[in-house]
């Protein structure tokens, strides 16, 4: 599945826990979004959750890696819950990775949204 800026992975609006969001990235498990930071930022901030159009079997693990080291992880992410905001220190970092991995049910209906992600200088 291809990621979609400001849309869910199916091309519809981003919706998590009944709320619509204008900014974010829609993905499907398993996905890895990688960004080169070149040491230019201090912090990464995001919220996240399963898109409301995910099925009842949707379940993923979300992780944030900085220079190949895991800085955040949340297992058993299911529909109906917005997580965050999460703040991760990226001071001096070269690379940021946003990972959505299979959960308890493999890749069944895992439509996940990174909500309002941003880098702080």
Overview of the structural elements:
With 121 residues, this protein is mostly beta strands. It has strands at residues 4-5, 14-16, 19-21, 24-28, 31-36, 43-50, 60-66, 69-77, 83-89, 95-102, 111-120. It has a 5-stranded antiparallel sheet with strand order 1-4-11-6-9, with no helix packed on it. A 4-stranded antiparallel sheet has the order 5-10-7-8, with no helix packed on it. The termini are far apart.
User: Roughly how much helix do the residues carry, as a percent range?
Assistant: under 10%
Spatial arrangement of strands, main beta sheet:
1-4-11-6-9
Question: In whole angstroms, how far apart are the ends?
Answer: 31 Å
Mean pLDDT level: 96
Structural class based on helices, strands and sheet pairing: mainly beta
Question: Would you list the SSEs in sequence order as H and E?
Answer: EEEEEEEEEEE
Q: Number of DSSP strands?
A: 11
User: How much of the polypeptide forms β-strand, as a percent range?
Assistant: over 45%
Low-pLDDT sequence parts: none
The biggest sheet, with number of strands, parallel, antiparallel or mixed sense and barrel status, is: 5 strands, antiparallel
The Cα radius of gyration reads 13 Å
The global form is globular
**Number of contiguous helices:** 0
Please specify the SSE layout and strand pairing.
Elements: E1 4-5, E2 14-16, E3 19-21, E4 24-28, E5 31-36, E6 43-50, E7 60-66, E8 69-77, E9 83-89, E10 95-102, E11 111-120
Antiparallel strand pairs: 1-4, 2-3, 4-11, 5-10, 6-9, 6-11, 7-8, 7-10
């Amino acid at each position: 599945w291809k990621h979609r800026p400001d849309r869910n992975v199916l091309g519809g609006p981003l919706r998590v826990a009944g709320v619509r969001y204008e900014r974010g990235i829609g993905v499907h498990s398993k996905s890895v979004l990688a960004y080169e930071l070149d040491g230019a930022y201090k912090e990464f901030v995001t919220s996240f959750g399963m898109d409301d159009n995910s099925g009842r079997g949707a379940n993923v693990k979300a992780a944030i890696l900085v220079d190949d080291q895991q800085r955040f992880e949340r297992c058993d992410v299911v529909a109906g819950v917005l997580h965050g905001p999460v703040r991760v220190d990226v001071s001096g970092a070269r690379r940021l990775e946003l990972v959505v991995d299979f959960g308890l049910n493999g890749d069944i209906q895992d439509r996940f949204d990174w909500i309002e992600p941003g880098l702080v200088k």
